[in-house]
Specification:
Chain lengths: 284, 298
């Protein structure tokens, strides 16, 4: 008969191992990608155009640029609407059917598989609005996907501002918008910003939607307008990993994956730092 | 007075703009459904719903008689979902218990964001690592000719849904009133007895909602299954078979089809099935979470 105390020790040990398994997975992912990717990455690989005949000669500059453009496009499409919707829900909305439907819609949008956003983007942005397989269509598609994340994060940030700040403003005779503008937003920008950056970094790593709306694996020029075709890091990784005939393709897929991870994790790290600093500073 | 009504008008316009942005979220969901529905539903003018849902063979480009059955694809999706949850549920709940009840606050501050960071790894990167490292290891371990199969992809999808399950389960456990813990401990229970007999039963519905959300994620995961599951359309018989879930099938075939062909429409019908599945799952888990939150708010 094991005593309850020993039983607890054993169980807690198992629980600790399970918890640190996730941490170990993350570290392993980094080790594998860094070890494999670092071998093929050099200045050439980061700054040159893609070479179709010999992949060792060229670089992924157009894919990096494409992903950055996508990130900017997604930000422009989703951040203004996302913040607006969050302000409406947290500051204006009464508890009625309209509000409840919006909240329900947002929670469900967040759970829709990314490939479905791809199908929607293909039928709506690419075909119905005739944007074609362009940066604009992909940005809008990923923007729609990012919208619920940004709304949720912004709402949390707005909720965290204490009611007393609003009441103080009203007491001085300020209007609703003056209060939001002068007393609520200044205290929630950091939360809104970090949530938005996280959403956009996730969108930049998405592959399935841009497979459907149509990224390009190889183009010999850089995109100059939102209606140009585009290359993107995740799609490039995918094709190199699964459909490229070169014997070096999978090695170079790791290189592209490393660049992608660096890009998204630079954004994630920024968020982590902002949050950590603010948590120390802000105490109501 | 004049400036007052002007101010009022401005306030009204601003309010209208914000409610319009809110309405966009609602319209998006309706729009997604309508675009999937109007295209997908057309496939049933030429393929009977019975054949579509119960047919075992999916072969739309067959030379003689195209086959439009998605049962094999649905079974593949179900296998990955089950397989990944078998991995993610015990690990996820254990990690949530650790974060909420065992870890010191400063350890939790570091470990929780790290686990959530897994959700930030692009799925294409996990798929690539699956192809390069996990699949060969699985093939060696079980003496298979290829490691690209249901088992390998279940493991990776399991890792991907882990952050969802951990994060929500931890919120559920932490939302339980501290009197529950104190009462258990005061009665002389060990911490583990208290967790097992008080917290887990009290949080059961919330934890099941966390699992449901993880399930929704697993059903919808595309890149990992596209890269690692093996892409065979044959009806799967074991976890060592290469398989092709619905999401992967859409991603593979959507680029090859002619717009508005029957094949194109059936891919949207598959999207509609996927949409309906995840919608129902999210809706139920949402209801459960709301109920759980309300139950312990005092």
């Amino acid at each position: 008969m094991i005593s309850e105390n020993n039983k607890q020790k054993i169980v807690f040990m198992i629980i600790r191992v399970a918890a640190f398994f996730s941490v170990a997975v993350l570290i392993l992912v980094f080790i594998f990608v860094f070890m494999g990717g670092a071998e093929v990455i050099n200045i050439n690989y980061l700054t040159k155009m893609w070479s179709h005949s010999d992949i060792r000669q060229g670089g992924i500059f157009p894919a990096i640029l494409g992903s950055v453009f996508l990130g900017i496009g997604v930000a422009m499409a989703s951040i203004p609407i996302g913040i607006g919707a969050a302000i409406y829900l947290n500051e204006y909305a009464k508890d009625n059917l309209f509000t409840r439907s919006i909240k329900l819609a947002i929670r469900n949008l967040a759970g829709i598989p990314s490939i479905i956003y791809g199908l929607f983007g293909l039928s709506f942005f690419v075909l119905f609005l005739r944007l074609g397989t362009s940066l604009a269509a992909a940005s809008l598609t990923l923007g729609v996907m990012t919208l619920p994340w940004i709304i949720t994060a912004s709402e949390e940030a707005l909720k965290a501002v204490p009611l007393s700040l609003r009441e103080g403003s009203y007491a001085l005779g300020a209007s609703k918008w003056q209060t939001i503008q002068g007393n609520v937003l200044p205290h929630s920008w950091s939360g809104i910003l970090t949530g938005s950056i996280l959403g956009i970094s996730r969108a930049m790593g998405e592959t399935a939607p841009i497979i459907v709306v149509g990224a390009t694996f190889f183009m010999s020029y850089l995109p100059t307008s939102p209606f140009d075709k585009f290359m993107a890091l995740p799609y490039h990784t995918f094709i190199l990993a699964t459909q490229h005939s070169s014997q070096y393709a999978q090695e170079y897929a790791l290189g592209t994956a490393l660049v992608l991870i660096c890009l998204t994790f630079i954004l994630n790290l920024g968020v982590f730092i902002i949050r950590y600093k603010l948590r120390k500073k802000k105490e109501w | 007075m004049g400036s007052g009504s002007c101010k009022n008008l401005k306030e009204k316009v601003i309010k209208f703009i914000f409610s319009a942005t809110g309405a966009i979220a609602l319209l998006t969901l309706i729009g997604i459904f309508l675009f999937l529905f109007t295209t997908g539903i057309k496939s049933f003018t030429q393929v009977s719903a019975g054949d579509f849902f119960t047919g075992r063979d999916w072969n739309p480009t067959a030379y003689q008689e195209p086959q439009w059955g998605i049962l094999g694809l649905l079974v593949s999706t179900a296998m990955i979902t089950l397989g990944s949850l078998v991995i993610a549920i015990p690990l996820g709940i254990a990690a949530a218990i650790y974060l909420s009840e065992i870890a010191r606050p400063n350890v939790r501050e570091i470990v929780k964001p790290i686990i959530e960071m897994i959700a930030g790894i692009p799925s294409v990167v996990l798929g690539l690592l699956g192809i390069l490292f996990l699949a060969p290891a699985i093939a060696d371990l079980f003496n298979l000719s290829s490691g690209l199969n249901a088992l390998t992809s279940s493991i990776i999808v399991g890792i991907m849904v882990l952050p969802t399950i951990v994060s929500i389960s931890e919120d559920v456990l932490r939302s339980l009133p501290k009197e529950f813990r104190e009462a258990g401990l005061a009665l002389g229970a060990t911490k583990w007895q208290m967790i097992r007999m008080t917290l887990l039963p009290a949080g059961l519905s919330g934890l099941s909602a966390a699992v449901l959300l993880g399930l929704g994620r697993a059903i919808g995961e595309t890149m990992v299954v596209l890269m690692v599951a093996g892409n065979s359309r044959a009806m799967p018989t074991s976890f060592f078979d290469p398989i092709r879930p619905i999401t992967a099938n859409i991603a593979i075939e959507i680029k090859e089809v002619v717009k508005d062909s029957l094949h194109y429409q059936t891919l949207f019908a598959m999207g509609l099935v996927l949409f309906a599945l995840t919608f129902v799952i999210n809706f139920i888990s949402d209801l459960i979470i709301q109920k759980q939150v309300r139950k312990y708010q005092w």
